[in-house]
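Researcher: Next sequence.
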Amino acid sequence: MKKRYDLIIIGGGVTGCALAWYFSHYDFEIALLEKEMDVCCGVSKANTGIFHSRSYWTPDTLKGELHLRSLSWFPRAKKELDLPVRECGALTVALSAADIGHLREVKARGRCPEAEIMGPIEARKREPNLNKNLKAAYYDPGTVVVSPFQLVCSLAECAALNGVEFHFDQHVRGFDQTSKYIRVLTPENNWEAAFVITAAGLFSSEIARYSRDKISDIRPCRGEYFVLDRDCDGFVNRVLYPAPRERSKGILVCPTPEGNVLAGPNFEPLDRFDSSTTYFGLEEVEKGAHRLTPHIPLHKNIRNFSGLRPTLPDRDFHIFFSNTYPNLLHLVGIESPGLTAAFGIAEYVGEKLHNKGLTLREKNDFRFRKAFPVFREADWKTREALIREDPDWGEIICRCEEVTVAEVKHALRTPPGASTLDGLKRRIRTTAGRCQGSFCLMSIPRLMSEIGNVPYGNMYKEGRKSPLFAGETREECSRSEYAEKGSC
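Model: Next structure:
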């Protein structure tokens, strides 16, 4: 008999995984369907990772309401997910007299007693690399930076630990209704649940139309970034914003929890989904970063990337029940600050489903996630203890980030485990360092084959359109066979 669920979530980005984590606190059967091979493969993978304080909420919008709701959830989430964060605060910089008015607006909106507007001398004491021509700066200590990869993967891990099933390569093509259940139609399978939530990012309006619900088309807006090497850690110690503009928070400079520095994003509306980087886009980001920090060491750039915001014409979140299927809830237009608002979105959706008849009975055996040790961050005494316990901790396969075989094994085996090269990168930072994989790519395929049981012909960088290998040039053999024969 086909398994039926109480709840199906469509989409494995930060919103979908936050929903999975939130509902895994309650006693019912949940499945998450994702069209890619892993979580965090869409909008969420290309994100600055800022958990915005209340100074940066948007009044008179649903996104603003859910942003504020989410703030009270963050300490609980951080504890349950064992999530590393960088509590760095933010400086919003006025580079002209007119910009000072924007700082006053942000301060009034935030109503944070510890926040303050300061003059240029004090601002540069806090951040010596700021533009010396700045007029003033607004300091907000409440801003926090997280790794968007770590956040999404931690949410997914904790949800899986508490019974949520993750199913990948599931391309939703429509819906149907039985007497009691909504049927989610995919080429690979049909899934049934009492309630279904769609949280499909860039494809959210398209999926809403599969249920014959009318919603404006998503318009992708591209933002491009520079990623600076970890030896730039300390160049800035806080998130640096320009004075806010109508379309976005502007091109910023930001530290990351891992020690890199990000510069970006710009804001470029597009007519199609195109996440390539461009000469003109990166030039715009470079100019914006130089306005804040004229001496930013962009020559230490190790990677560029771009992300797409799933924007609707009114730039707000739209969360609504289908007119065709009463227990189908659509989430459309979840753009910035979607990462910040994810917990508030989950709570809001929970209320909506409860009002529709979904019984929220809390589990008494909910399990917290425990983060796996990070070898690079461990002191020598801890490293020695780890190696004594398991020799795999002593074999480093990624020199830049000091990632060990033990960490690769954990990332491949812990549900929902990595199945691609980028899946490993997002969990343990292989291929994320200065050499961008030149060293660790010599070892990762072997480990994926031996530990993850992934055939070489089925290895991918990101998804099905990015195979790592074109084909075999000779018969492969194991290390033991090579040791015996001296060759394959």
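Model: Residues 90-141+219-311 form a domain with the D-Amino Acid Oxidase; Chain A, domain 2 fold (CATH 3.30.9.10). The mean pLDDT is 95.
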